[in-house]
Amino acid sequence: MMISAFAMMSSLSGANMNNPDIKGTVLTPEGKPMSFVNVVLLTADSTFVQGATSDETGKFNIETTVNDGILKISSIGYKTVYIKMSDFRGVIMMEEDSQMLDEVTVKAQLPKTKLTGNSMLTSIQGSVLEKSGTAKEMLAKVPGMTQKGDDLEVLGKGAPVFYINGRKVTDTDELKRLRSEEIKDVEVITNPGAMYDATVSAVVRIKTIRRQGTGFGYDLDLNDNSDLLYGYNDPSATLNLRYRHKSFDLFGMVNYWKWDGIQDSDPYQQSYLKDKNGNLKTIEQDMHFRHDTQSQGMNYNLGFNWQLAENHSVGMRFETKDILKTRMPMTAETASRQWIVGKEGEVLSEESHSTQYGRHKAPYNVQGNAYYNGTVGKLGIDLNLDFITYKTLDTEDIDEVNNGIASKMNSDNHNKSHMVADKLVLSYPIWKGQLQAGTEMSYVRRKAQYQISNILLPASQSEVKERNIAAFAEYAVAIPKAGYFSAGLRYEHVGFDYEDMLHTAKTISRYDNDFFPSFSWANQWGAVQASLSYSYKTMRPDFQMLDESIFYINSYSLQQGNPTLKNEKNQQIGLNLHWKYLNLYTSYNRIDDGINNWSFLYDSGNPEDDMQGVVLIKTINLENPISVKSAYLSANPTFGCYSPNWTMGFQQYKMNNTLADPREATGQREVKYHRPMFIMDLNNTFRLKHSWQLEANLNAVTRGDYMNMRIISDTWDLGFTVQKCWLKNDALCLRASLYDALNKTATNIEMDCGYYLLHQKSVNNRQRLNISLRYTFNAQQSKYKGTGAGKETAGRMNK
Question: What is the pTM of this model?
Answer without folding.
Answer: 0.80
